[in-house]
Amino acid sequence: MRGIRLDHGAIEIQMARSQARARLFGRPAEPIRLGRFVVLRRVGSGGMGVVYEAYDPQLDRKVALKLLRSDVGGSAVLTSQLRLDELSAEARAMARLSHPNVVTVFDVGEVDGRVYIAMEYVAPPTLRGWLEAEPRSVAAIVAVMLEAGAGLAAAHRAGLVHRDFKPENVVVPSGEPVRVMDFGLARRLEPLFERLERSGMSALATREGVLTTQLAGTPLYMAPEQFHPGAIDVRADQWAFCATLFEALHGRPPFSLGERLLGSARLRLPTEARSGPIPPPLNAVLRRGLSFDPAQRFESMDALLECLRPSRRRSRAPLLGLAAAAVIAAVTAGLLGARPPVADPCPAREDRLRAAWSEADAAQLHARFAESGLAYAATSAERTAALFDRYGEEWIAAERLVCLLGRSGAEARVSERGACLDERLEALAVTRDELLEGAAGDLPLTVERSVSLATRLPPIRGCEQAQLVPTTDPLDRQARRRLSRHASRARARVQARRLDAAEAALVEARADGGSDHPESEAVLALLEAELALLRAQPERAHERLDRVIEVAGRERLVDLVAEAAVMQAEVEAGLRVNASVARDILRVARVALAVSDPGPQARGRLELVQARVEYDSSHFEAGRRATEAAIEAFTEAGARGRLKLSEGLQMLAIQTFGAGEYEQARAFAEQSEGLQLELLGASHPDLAKTALVLGAVDLVDGRGERAVAQFRRAAALQAESLGSEHPHVAQTLINLGNAYLELGEHAAALAEYERALAILQPVLGRDDPRVLACLANIGGSHRGLGEASRAEAVFREVIVRSRGLGEPGAATLSLALGNLARALHDQGRFAEAEDTYEEALVLRRSVFGDEHPKTAALYDDLGRFYIDTGRYRDATPLIERGKAIRSASFGAHHVEYARSEVSLGLLDLARGRSDEAIDRIDRALDRLERDGRAEARGDARLNLARALSQRGHPGDLERARALIARCREGPAGAPYVAELAAWCASLGGRAPCD
């Protein structure tokens, strides 16, 4: 054995051999030594190493000796002096921590190539053993956890984070204080504090610092952020503490490991424990402490314990009732001895919060929403109240931190943050009033928009940045309060889409001196711009935003500059459809956001605008990256960002849909739908948007019946909220008609289009582009029904009306000309069709550009027309051009590229090269069968059957018969029934049409 390194296995082998010799030879067992320590017995093990009961002859006392595993620290043997120095520094930090609820560390060192930590020996049981010994009441469990939490809080104040808090690391000895042990995973925060002190900033002004990026801990109790690289701080211990408390109460962990890794689980809090009822405030502590977003947890362990501990200052029912409070008082007094009460220097200001939002307000909200009679009213009230509750919790935590900052001497920062928090509380109160006191006629819209309104309250975290860049002429406190009140009222009405009421609030604000100060002017101009944006008034919005940037820039109000720049990009992208200008403005917005750092929701909004710009420019990959960045930002925003996160997922679904990645689009849409169900309930009209995306995916995937069901669901949800005659319902009916076309049910499609037209035309006018697009769909239905002359008449009407609109009608005109050309082509009127195709192509290049997929589609159509008329030389460059555009836009593996390959196959077939045609169309069909639209699959099947029939090799006719059968039996061939019949007639009923 000489020369072999000692490890815990060797120690236990030596112990076993010594005991065996003692039994065999009747002599005392030889002591096993590790350095100066005499190892007595093994008492436990964990991820970091093994713990032995040992005796320290130098200090003449029993110790717990922890021998670290050989692979801890990333090397096979822990002999690194750097690592030893690090552990020694940790031990010194822990040794300085003297608290009755923390196990004392005596020494750390290295012997025989292993690192050990010697600490106070505390007799078992651990918390787990204590729980298993006999049934424990809720009160007793909370009493023990309060003591353990006090130990954690003391460690945090000393600059230590545990990172491995669990039942095995809490000792509950009889007649002694509860102890927290095993800080072997902790890392010191002192270097960060030292850097802060050197920079002149109080350590209290931070979130208690950055900890480490190393993954360590016991997976069942690790906070979600510990599974990912990045900063870890004291809030990870809060998660572990609450997970341990939950398990102590219910006998199971709150989440599975998979749920925490995915970060998508919903916490279910039973109202009954194994030993009795759970008071609601206790569940409130668990819900907050187990938040997946660290920012949503308590600001400190002390704050968590304050909420867990019974308090006579609370107006609500005490956590455990008077009897439980007596139990806790008795247990604490018995274990720790009588101590004089210590007054909290910064008690929570719940009285101020209740003036803005209370349980009575929540009850009134539920009652008022119920008056609407809407199916989703109760869900909206519940979700809105929960968001207001969370906002109130954040405000309480931030207000207490301001108090602590004040006690640390940071008076200047306290003044600015305190004023900011006053404004946030004012915003909450004003928003509450808007929901509870609005006009009865506005109630349905109020219910619909309530959750969105609650998520758009100004973020509490923004107060951390209050006045980092001082303005040249700051508002006085009274003027700021007036501005905050007016702005909050106008903002709430804008978010609730009560636009006339919002405008009245802005007029009132200006009458109350809102234009007398640059900051007031900038804030109100920004709200006026948002109002103009919602009213589709681009010039007014642009003028107001220019004013914001001018005034706010001069006054160094960078956050307002950033917000105005993002909104200006929205104007250019949405109302003016000017992607290049929007892209330039977004660059300015990024710089302003980087300077002001207003929070993740603002960054997410910018990325969504960027995504729209890229998507509208057919830059699908750039759009996808921007949307993913938006999703990341909204995820960081936590509960208040989840609604925007669902919108981001919805946008990403649309983008991947546009790129032809239909299954990915479905996955994103389903994730969005899941969030909406959680936040809004199953009956909320916003689910209609996601149903439309899912229906579109089903439509292109050839699942016409599923698409019909999705579109019908969307129409029903919209009708519940908006009424059956609303233009949004009409747009959904158009999609429903498209789904019926996919099924080959042209008559049903025509009926839905006509219903949509009857809704749109009286509201929008007969010449609105949306009305004309619907009319064009009606023409397409007539063409599908074989009514070419009726289709032609409808397309000509659309063309005449579109020409009368000038530039606004150019896009509709270009599409209608293409449809008319196809209808003339169907009728064999080739000269007229050629002229119309060429006019449509010129216009489409002008409207969409020569690199756009819509232009590629018309190149392809005109190329096929030339094939039908025998002009193969003219067809070739057109089809090749369409293929090049599709390749550049989508790539060579996309379904649109496959459609160009089918067209080139037809060109080969027309020139008698059937082998090349079959090879090319066969490859394209293989791609289309997996992802293509049904009508594209039908086109490829029919043309492959023609190529096989022309070649006539053994087996070709049999395969052609199978393809023809598939065209006839399913929706994929429905658009080609007439063409198939004409081709079979030309064969005189011979194979493969026999």
| Main sheet overview | 6 strands, antiparallel
- What structural category arises from helix and sheet content? mainly alpha
Distance between the termini: 89 Å
Content of β-strand: 5-15%
CATH topology category name of one domain: Transferase(Phosphotransferase), domain 1
Strand order of the largest sheet: 1-2-3-4-6-5
By oligomeric state, this entry counts as: single chain
Shape: globular
User: Number of helical runs?
Assistant: 40
**Residues in helix, %:** 55-70%
Query: Tell me, what is the CATH class of one domain?
Result: Mainly Alpha
Could you list the spans in which at least 5 consecutive residues all have pLDDT below 50?
A: 1-8, 70-83, 184-216, 312-343, 971-975
CATH-level-2 architecture of one domain: Orthogonal Bundle
Instruction: Find the count of extended strands (DSSP E, 2+ residues).
Output: 12
InterPro entries: Kinase-like_dom_sf, Prot_kinase_dom, Protein_kinase_ATP_BS, Ser/Thr_kinase_AS, TPR-like_helical_dom_sf, TPR_rpt
Keywords: ATP-binding, Kinase, Nucleotide-binding, TPR repeat, Transferase
Protein name: Serine/threonine-protein kinase
GO molecular function: kinase activity
